[in-house]
Write a structure and sequence with these properties.
There is one protein chain. Helices cover about 35% and strands about 20% of the residues. The radius of gyration is 18 Å and the shape is globular. The protein is built from 10 helices and 10 strands. Helix 2 links the parallel strand 2 (about 35-40) and strand 3 (about 60-65).
Length: about 280
Amino acid sequence: MDAQTVAVITPAYRAQATIGATVRSVLAQTHGAFEHHIISDDGVDYRELLAGMGIADPRLRFHSSGKVGGGSTRARNMVLDTLATPYAALLDADDRFKPQKLERAVAALEHRPIVATALEVMSADFISLRTVGAGPDRVLRASEHKWVSLSMDTMLVWDRRRADARYDPDLPNMTDLDFLMGLYRTAESEMYLGTPLHDYVKISSSMSNGAGFTERMIHSKTLLLKRLEEGFYPMADPAATEAIAAFLRLSLEAEKLYPQVLAQRPGALFEDTIEPMIRAAGH
């Protein structure tokens, strides 16, 4: 195994329509030392499905969660428990990597144990909607991350020898932030790449504020905030607990406003609601 091999972890649940583009984005990486672990959480044989699309490569590794709808968190944990690679990366089954994502992340891991990147937010048919966190490359302390990366946190690549964590399978949403705070136990800072290197595809429920979506997000953010206030997440950066808690308080206010914004502007993104609030708060 190459000393810079990255394990890319992709749970797949009803991903037949999207998994081809996701896997092709990994196979197109300029950094070729990777294993792409695809975990079927729906009983589908994704090896056979991809082969039917003309996609086959010895770096693709196929697993089954043994369940149907067991959850992406459990699927990811299953693979994380068995990895031998020094590095790991996250990729949802409807997202994509830009071609230089792994190359640039691996180079940055020489300097910090975690790498996060800016995002390009995409519609389901890969029309660019906006970017999140674009700007210069820089070191961010854990206390600074969410004020820059104000959307999801599945863009992570990390050195498992210097920071490691597992997912909380009982958390309904915000699982990536929970996981990141686990990495922050031993990692005080990260390298943040301000070039959008990760395509974040907005699923229909988040695009349209589908039934119950806002309520689930409020529930999860409230739970994470309570955990932070109770000291559930010990972090190497002493300022991180209060900074992330402050972000979640502001994010909860944005969640309350978001349905009104959607009513006035159908298709509006949550990021468009929270970003001006973050700027107004001085971040």
